[in-house]
Amino acid sequence: MGTEKAMPKRQDINKILIIGSGPIIIGQACEFDYSGTQACKALKKLGYEIVLVNSNPATIMTDPDVADITYIEPLNVDRLTQIIEKERPDALLPNLGGQSGLNLCSELDEAGVLEKYNVKVIGVQIDAIKRGEDRIEFKHTMEKLGIEMARSEVAYSVEEAVAIAEKLKYPVVLRPAYTMGGAGGGMVYNVEELKVVCARGLQASLVGQVLVEECISGWEELELEVVRDAKNNIITVCFIENIDPVGVHTGDSFCSAPMLTIPEDVQKDLEKKSYSIVEAIEVIGGCNCQFARNTETGRVVVIEINPRTSRSSALASKATGFPIALVSAMLACGLTLDEIPCGKYGTLDKYKPDGDYVVIKYARWAFEKFKGAEDKLGTQMKAVGEVMSIGKTYKEAFQKAIRSLETGRYGLGFARDYNKLSKDELLSKLRYPTSERQFVIYEALRKGATIDEIYNLTKIKKWFLEQMKELVEEENALLEHKGAVPDENTLRKAKQDGFSDRYLSGLLGVTEEEIRNARLGFGIREAWEGVHVSGTENSAYYYSSYNIPEDKSPSNTDKPKIMILGGGPNRIGQGIEFDYCCVHAALALKKLGFESIIVNCNPETVSTDYDTSDKLYFEPLTLEDVLAIHEKEKPLGVIAQFGGQTPLNLAGDLKKYGVNILGTSPETIDEAEDRDLFRAMMEKLNIPMPENGMAVNVDEALEIANRIGYPVMVRPSYVLGGRGMEVVHDDEMMRVYMSAAVGVTPDRPILIDRFLNHATECEADAISDGEHCFVPAVMEHIELAGVHSGDSACILPSKNLTKKQVDTIRDYTKRIAVEMGVRGLMNMQYAIEGDTVYVLEANPRASRTVPLVSKVCGINMVRIATDIITLPLTGRPSPVPALRERAVNHYGVKEAVVPFNMFPEVDPVLGPEMRSTGEVLGISPSFGEAYYKAQEATRTSLPSEGTVLLSVCDRDKPELVETARAFYSLGFKIIATGKSFEMIKEAGIPVERIFKMYEGRPNIADQIANGEIQLIINTPAGKDAVTDDSYIRKAAIKHRVPYITTMAAAKASAEGIRAIKENTHFGVKSLQAHHADISEL
Question: d(Cα 414, Cα 406) in Å, to the nearest integer?
Answer without folding.
Answer: 16
